[in-house]
Amino acid sequence: MAEKITSYRFDHLDDTLSQLNKEDCAIMAGGTDVMVLHKSRRGAAPKIPKPIIFIDHLSELKRVYQNEKDLHIGACCTYSELLEERLIPVPLKDAIRTIAAPAIRNRGTLGGNICNASPAGDTLPLLYVFNAKLVLRSIHGDRIMAISDFIQGPRRIGRNQNEILAEIILPSVLEEGAHVVFEKVGNRNADAIAKVGFAGYIRINDARIDDVRFAFGAVGPTMVRSMDIEKTLVGKSVPLADADIGQVVAAFGKIIRPIDDQRSTAAYRKTVSLNLLRYFLSMKHYQPT
Amino acid sequence: MIKFTLNGRTIETDASPAIRLLDLIREEFELIGTKEGCGEGECGACSVFVNNLLQNSCLIPIGSIEGADVQTIEGIMETEQFKILDESYSEAGGVQCGYCIPGMVMASAALLSKNPHPSEEEIREGISGNLCRCTGYNMIVNAINLAAKKGDGIWQKK
Fold first, then answer.
1. Quick check: A14 contacting B, CB < 8 Å?
2. Is A102's CB within 8 Å of B27's CB?
3. ipTM of the complex
4. Which CATH class is domain B79-150?
5. Going by C-beta distance under 8 Å and a sequence separation of 6 or more, which residues neighbour residue B71?
């Protein structure tokens, strides 16, 4: 069999963090992306260039709990575990059901989807509209970062070598009466990498928009979100006037610049993105979820 | 050393922790019912149970399965549930070349143990991670439907 490599599997998070403080390691949670990324020929072990540190068994990284109105999700929760978890908001569960297929949902983790930082990461549009914050833990303590700052480009993240993504915080998600949608467009219902992902979030107060957020996936190096465009809708009454919808769609038309690749074309992606946005903005009623 | 249970036997191996579970069970233990299709988690031919959960063995580095209970298609062949699936797949004409079938059977068993009376949509969702390139899915869906009926009452037995 293949040559020996160094790997670690500690019983506790503390020891894991101490090791990461000493040595740069490849962090292995579910492995569903890492194993494909480093795949080698049949029968041979994947070529992972650093010592591997296994974290998928660490119970400290699997807790889901409420802290006032915020929801904290352990980064190593698998998708299947989140589907069974009472506290997880329905739109997030709906999004998770569109990810991969049962066997991968039994292994893949929410933290892994974030740290893999794929432009087409399935949960990312939704996490952006939830204003997710990430808890990065090291032996020196916790550091909190907005997901939009953490993800810097395809496979580029703001994690320091000695840190682990420990928790995902969805601020205020447990109290607000927001209407949230998630759409994924792919070639096949299961196991497809998205051509376009879209998440929309809207909170209405007395027929006026209090807060509105949009995020588009797979149409740029990172998720596309614009707080400037979102702000132009605050205070408007719903149903929105055609002119307002047209303005927002046109504004996103300027900043959504997808590429052609093996999965789709730039033109298709842009058209679908703007259609999903237009559909979301044209709804007559928004139901809090 | 990595220690785990494979089809009820305690196993210790000094193979590299990055080796795929798929390669370990096929090469070292010669359990060749588990197939390699795409090697990327998209086809389900390599499906096994890890702690009773359906997983793709091509995506699992064996370092992850320390202490786990792994079952392959060979490990479930003596069960009552397997016999019903075997009969139902034959009767419904659900097998042609057979390459995807161990994975399909694992996915079928996983589905029925969780949901013994699935709708057609739930069956399709249950095997959504398994690709078949020759039989066609309708006959496989029929086979699972038949197995649900024939095996009524046995799916949640240990």
1. no
2. no
3. 0.95
4. mainly alpha
5. B6, B7, B48, B49, B52
